[in-house]
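We both want to read discrete structure tokens more fluently, so let's practise on a single case. Would you supply a protein for us yourself, any chain you care to pick? Would you write everything just below, so we can both look at the same thing?
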Amino acid sequence: MSPPTPGTRRQSYSEFFRAWGIGLVGGGLASWAGIPLAWMLGPLFAAMLISLAGISLSMPSPLRIGSRGMVGMLLGSAVTPETFDRVGQWPFSLMLMVLGLLLMSVLTASYYRGIGGFDRLSAVSASLPGAISNIPAIAIRMGANGPKVVLSHLARVTLVIMVVPPLYMAWQGLDASLEGGNPTSWNLLGEHLWILPVALPAGFLARRLSLPVPEMIGPMITAAILSLMGYRLALPEWLLAGTFLVLGTTIGARFYHMPLSLLVGTGRHALLGTLVTLATAVAVAVVMHAVLGVPLAVALLAVIPGGLAEMALLAAALGVDPVFVTFHQIARSILLNAMAPFVLRLFGGR
């Protein structure tokens, strides 16, 4: 791989500063308007509009990795001895989630194939609610329709992030200004920030150990151990807002160079296919609540297939049993990434 030239470096810097500026404007406007989780949804929506207008944005890889590490530490700091009271339920809730994944994949693939007009491989790959980067890449290598598959996954993640927080807050009667699990205890300096340089490097160790999502899991485990020892990290509000901004802007920037014809044509099917997926997830959450007694709000965030880091962060920000939610979201990611090549070869033949 050739080293970057001065021209490409200047372009990267320009895209980064544009992304950061757009994120700040979007987050500031959303905060002023009282939108829930303003520093994620505002940058996401602003970056999406700018990207659709043909202006490229990008966040450097170290910032994206660091933001996932921040999410991991935020989750780990929520671990207390009481967190493990429901561990005995996890195998049963995991089985329900797996059955739900099977059902939502079948129903969504049927929609894409029968109504959306997708070829079989594209329909199956678009219906698997896994990572937005991994499954489309595998499917495209196998011959799937790239734009259709990518847009379907992008619509799912974007719709979940933009719709779930406002609906949840309206349902629970929460303050729209809420940005974290316990904001009243936070200040501009945070608490126990010495944990940051201790926990963040744990991502490299997690990668050496081949753990899933190492940049998030390593810091999460480290912060959890320290939390159980009585050292609970509280991120300052500005740092948490920056983490939201990076995640939201990164999602919005994925809409760059997406043709209007694709958005109008495939986009409506991607939207309706996502609604089929979400409706199935809600049904699974209701069953989990009825059978196992898991609070409905917790079950919903555990089974709704958004992005892994984003759903974990939403659980922490909304104060909804983030460890339970993260466990199920990680299990979904591992299962789908491991099974996707087999499933696509078995059921995705044209």
Notes: The longest helix spans residues 260-292. The chain has one domain: 7-176+185-347.
